[in-house]
């Protein structure tokens, strides 16, 4: 990881372990009154978001500030992008201001990979289209490791709109590298069979009961209506067949963790009482996002 | 109209079954004699010893971008790239601005080519007005003005009824119908071949079936109407076997393949590099193998480049925003010889056939052979010349090629149009 962080696929297990280990060091900081470290004092981070985001952008910004770095956040609608500037020109302009890293979210898969070929500044991928969202997978792993000593051998069900999910892809690569058993589940038009070939250890089912039985972790995904140029699945059938309800949890391990990358749509992919249940670690995921992003930024900007 | 005495080359003229060391004499722009013992003191001499002398190569599928997109390519620059690639004739698709859907635009292209092009340019007219797929274009008057085929290339004719009517007219006017076979509903939003690679990159897929269903439809319509139907840039294995089957049934169906479809697969795509983005997309290995096999079996008649220049400003973008298409004219000979001839899969004669007499027959051009009386269009090849493609030195105005830095064996060393040497790399 000499330059930025573009995806989990390119990382080794050892590199991931190092980030997670460092993130664990940062976790206790959350409960201290002085949350600020000076590890990146004088460094500058630019957050460039071409897509709407609340939690990820805020999380990166807080992570940078807790490390003592300066952070500037830019959203595309308020920038020269709205004036027709190309992506390369926008990034070159920002790079000329010499930030130490650029965090970028973009609706096009591969946008940060394309830019990384031309820019000297390290780029952290905060989600590219339907491709990868590496820091989400890292914070998901950290959250599971708060409850389990290892990811190896865990049974993880990832349920929902898999084909459009960058969270699913990054998590699949990560879990696979650590020897977890992953079941992908969703409506057939949103779960092409080729998905299981992305990494070793994947299986596929269209039956939610089958996916959840014996699961240690249930990871729900949002239906990404904004990425679908059609209605691949009848909306009225989504919740009955792929919405997570309390009765499902009885099929899983008693210790099951319910996760969701957010934003959650209560009553669409997850029942309200499940989202608020004691098995739900959805808010822990958000909290761990800061520690993980601190570890990533420290690694890249130091 | 010039004269040239091309001496002592290995003359390969598939149309006449000729393969021998001989001289080719062009006088006043026409081939007048082929053989040994020719004497002609008046003509300049071209020593082709150790080289291969073939009929001028014909590329039946290029985009010259003029009129309307002169920042990408012009008839002049496209023709220079053609000459550098060994092509003496190029056939240009109508998706210019305005679209070549009327005799006026056809005449403009022919006139601009006469003024500026260094090789022969033959226009293809649109099937429908504006290539919008709805109302038929003025096919008869375009034919009178000089088009050699009709096509809405870049887009299919989605409405089967419109395609049926177009084929009926095309048969009556004796022009072939070339279809860009793509079901737009199946391919909607797609950026690359649908498969493991598209899933991995998070890019939307274009299934091979989007090509296959249209090839199937058009073959059935060709049977219904009796029209001559040609599949542009065939890329899918089922499409290739359907064409083969149609030929076995005796239907007037032909097809062409682009060099990138028999050399590159989807897994060769450099992640998010738009120089690998075109339509049809680079498909899976099994489709690449089928394209190679299609040349062997005769299901594929011609090699054509689909030369599609786009300027850097359009290709230097997020993959999904970039336009489709890559350059092809300067790399076609090297790729074809490398894939088929140097591997021993196909004879040099057969490959020359796919680039000369085969496209000439489909389009009914009086070219593609070295018969006495034919136009003096000649390509001189060095099948063993080793070279590296530097796209920054391309004659095209654009730079969008996945073959930059690629090492080739085999190249055109001279391109002769009507007895004039228009490209000379000796």
Cα Rg of chain B: 20 Å
CATH homologous superfamily descriptor of the largest domain in chain B = Metal-dependent hydrolases
Instruction: Supply the number of helical segments of chain A.
Output: 11
Question: Would you count the extended β strands of chain A for me?
Answer: 9
Indicate the CATH class of the largest domain in chain A.
Alpha Beta
- Mean pLDDT of chain B, to the nearest integer, reads 97
Q: What is the CA-atom radius of gyration of chain A, in angstroms? A: 19 Å
Distance between the termini of chain A: 12 Å
| Strand arrangement in the largest pleated sheet of chain A | 7-6-5-8-9
Strand content of chain B: 15-25%
> First CA to last CA of chain B: what distance?
22 Å
Strand content of chain A: 5-15%
Q: Which blocks of ≥5 consecutive residues of chain B have pLDDT under 50?
A: none
Q: What does the model show?
A:
The complex is a heterodimer of chains A (302) and B (426). With 302 residues, chain A is α/β, with parallel strands linked by helices. Chain A has helices spanning 13-26, 55-66, 87-95, 111-116, 134-145, 166-177, 208-212, 235-242, 246-249, 272-275, 282-301; strands spanning 44-49, 70-75, 101-106, 123-128, 155-159, 181-185, 202-205, 217-220, 257-259. Chain A has a five-stranded parallel sheet. In chain A, α1 (13-26) crosses α11 and α5 packs across α6 (166-177). The radius of gyration of chain A is 19 Å and the shape is globular. Chain A starts with 12 loop residues before the first helix and ends with a helix. Chain B is an alpha/beta fold. Chain B folds into two domains: 4-51 and 410-424, Urease, subunit C, domain 1 (Roll); 55-368 and 383-407, Metal-dependent hydrolases (TIM Barrel). In chain B, the strands form four sheets. In chain B, strands 1, 2, 3, 4, 5, 16, 17 and 18 form an eight-stranded mixed sheet that branches. Chain B has a five-stranded parallel sheet with strand order 9-10-13-14-15. In chain B, α6 links the parallel β11 and β12 (205-206). The longest helix of chain B is centred in the middle third of the chain and has 18 residues, at 208-225. Chain B starts with a strand and ends with a strand. In chain B, 61% of the residues are buried. The interface between A and B is medium-sized, with 26 and 20 residues.
